[in-house]
Write a structure and sequence with these properties.
Layout lengths: L4 H7 L2 H8 L11 H30 L14 H48 L28 H20 L3
Helix pairs in contact: 3-4
Length: 175
């Protein structure tokens, strides 16, 4: 739900209205990064204050809170509308900040692409002379540890028995 400028002016005091007015076209384009950040902080403060007032009035209407202050608006509607005005202005300011950030990022990307293209073109035209023919060093060692041969446990006993038999034959042989 949007609120007209006339309604916003009737809801807000002068200081608040000036902050909201500077969040819209054409005044927002006159602000730099720091100005946008400061404006966003002010609008967030105003929004939080209106949110607190609206919550307090709702609690008073339900009967869960005591009334506070004499100059406090009568119902929760006016602080809720004020909060909407500030929230919309804050949304506009945040979009403008994001737009400026995206422009900077795009400019940095274009600059980096131009540098990369220049480096590539420079590397294409450099001449690398061929080296002299050299002798082949031959077969190269692979490196690493030698492959481990694993003998299954069922073979270990039979190999031992075969060795024992062969030794017994040699012992029984005449010299």
């Amino acid at each position: 739900m949007s609120i007209s400028e006339k309604d916003a002016k009737s809801l807000l005091n002068h200081e608040e209205y000036e902050a909201v007015k500077s969040a819209y076209h054409p005044a927002i384009y006159a602000l730099d990064r720091d100005g946008l950040r400061n404006l966003a902080l002010r609008l967030e403060g105003y929004r939080e204050k209106a949110k607190t007032f609206a919550r307090q009035k709702r609690r008073e209407a339900k009967g869960t809170a005591e009334p506070r202050g004499k100059s406090f608006p009568g119902t929760a509607v006016q602080p809720a509308k004020k909060k909407q005005v500030f929230a919309h202005a804050l949304k506009v300011v945040k979009k403008e900040r994001a737009r400026l950030h995206n422009l900077d990022v795009r400019a940095q990307n274009v600059e980096a692409a131009h540098r990369a293209l220049a480096l590539r073109r420079a590397s294409q035209f450099t001449h690398h002379p061929e080296g002299d023919p050299t002798a082949n060093p031959g077969q190269q060692a692979k490196g690493g540890r030698p492959k481990r041969v694993r003998t299954p446990g069922s073979k270990i006993g039979s190999i031992l028995k075969a060795n024992a038999r062969a030794q017994a034959k040699r012992d029984n042989r005449p010299n």
